Amino acid sequence: MSRHHDLMRLYDGELDPETAAELERSLSDEDRRVLAGLDQVGEVVRAYEPEGLARFAGVADQVMAALDEPDRGAPRRPEVVVELEPVRSRPKQRTSAPVVVAGLVLAAAAAVALWLSTPAAPTPSAAPLASATLGPAAPPAPITPAPDSPAETADEEADLAATIEAVDFGNQPGSIFMVPAGEESTPVVWLDDEPAGARMEPL
Amino acid sequence: MRARSWFLLAPALLLAMPALAEADKGGKAPPARAEKPKDPKAKEEKKPAEAELGTEVMVLHATNSGKGIDSAIGNMPELKKPPFSSYDSYALLSKTRLPLSKDDKTMTLPNGRVLKTKLLEVMPDKQHLRISASINQPKGKTFLPLLEVKAKVGQAFIVAGQSYKGGILVLVIRVVK
User: Fold this and answer.
1) How many domains does chain A have?
2) What integer best gives the mean pLDDT of chain A?
3) For chain B, what is the domain count?
4) Is some CB atom of chain A closer than 8 A to the CB atom of B168?
């Protein structure tokens, strides 16, 4: 127990007579100032208590009175005036719904017709040399310069030379390039193969 | 009310116009669907074409032994261009024809590795083919796991660089009929 708490219990008369007498004998100046402060607080509370209680009691009485008289609040409810105009607007929605549905059906039909009329999109074909998967240490493959019009020149190149569509070099490095051979070019896959015994193989 | 409904119908009619225009042009059915019945015939035509196709594999040995280019190789201007020109001698070790089919066709190379070729597909123009090639090590390891090439009859591609007896192997793979 703190000293301040004991003082509060002494002030409130909650201590037994023996403890109270013992505590009163041991009161210091600071303790006496605390008790005087409690006196002042008590006076303030008592001064304002009747007014606050009266105000609270007034509110409680009003609430209880309102509960006792249920019909008293009924006239205060705002009157709701129902107009007949919203009823007139319902037929408008009913008549526009089929039109909206018809419009949607027509739009869907147009979309389906357009979809059917367009030719099937060509499957994306890998560009020559572009899809090559190089090995881990593969040097950059020398690739022919990019053409101005990719579609046309790609077709021409496809006619002039074989095209490498995919390469997996595995564990060793490699490169892809074109070697001119007269009017045509020949694609070359170059594997960097080390001589036997030159590479450390895992056991 | 009716004016409102016309406002709603107008965009729908505008959307439907292209479809009506296409119908006027006489587009009865999409071309992709019209071609479907032709598929069985196409398959029938493919079979004999595939049976005729093959790959000619020339195995060259490139060295710097000063012997020049073997006349049996024929005209190959590529061998005089870099990086092939860094070797002054090319000897024809073998010339093998492998039939092209959907099954793997193999041949053993001079270094013991195995070259495997396979026909992936005949392109719709029936001139170009997609073929795959791979080279496997004798112990089952894959040296060149995958190579896919699109070529037509007469076109070639080269797989080079495998070390062999002081030089390298140059595989010239050509699609032939």
Assistant:
1) 2
2) 69
3) 2
4) yes
- The answer as to whether A120 is a domain residue is no
Nearest by CB to residue A165, choosing from B31, B144, B148, is: B148
Instruction: Let me know whether B19 and B97 are in one domain.
Output: no
Q: Which residue range is the domain that position B39 belongs to? A: 2-46
Residue A102, domain member (yes or no) = no
Cα gap A96→B5, rounded to integer Å: 6
**Which positions in chain B touch A190 (Cβ < 8 Å)?**
83, 160-161
Q: Which residues of A touch B15 (CB under 8 A)?
A: 106-107, 110-111
Express each pLDDT in A129-162 by its tens digit.
433 444 443 433 444 444 445 555 555 555 678 8
Rounded Cα distance, A72 and A96, in Å: 48
The predicted-structure confidence for A10-64, as pLDDT tens digits, reads as follows: 888 888 899 889 888 888 888 888 888 888 887 887 776 666 666 666 677 777 7
B contact test, residue of A172, A193, A201 with most B CBs within 10 A = A193
Which of B53-89 are b and which e, b meaning 16 or more Cβ less than 10 Å from the residue's Cβ? bbbebbbbbbbeeeeebeeebeebebbeeeebeebeb
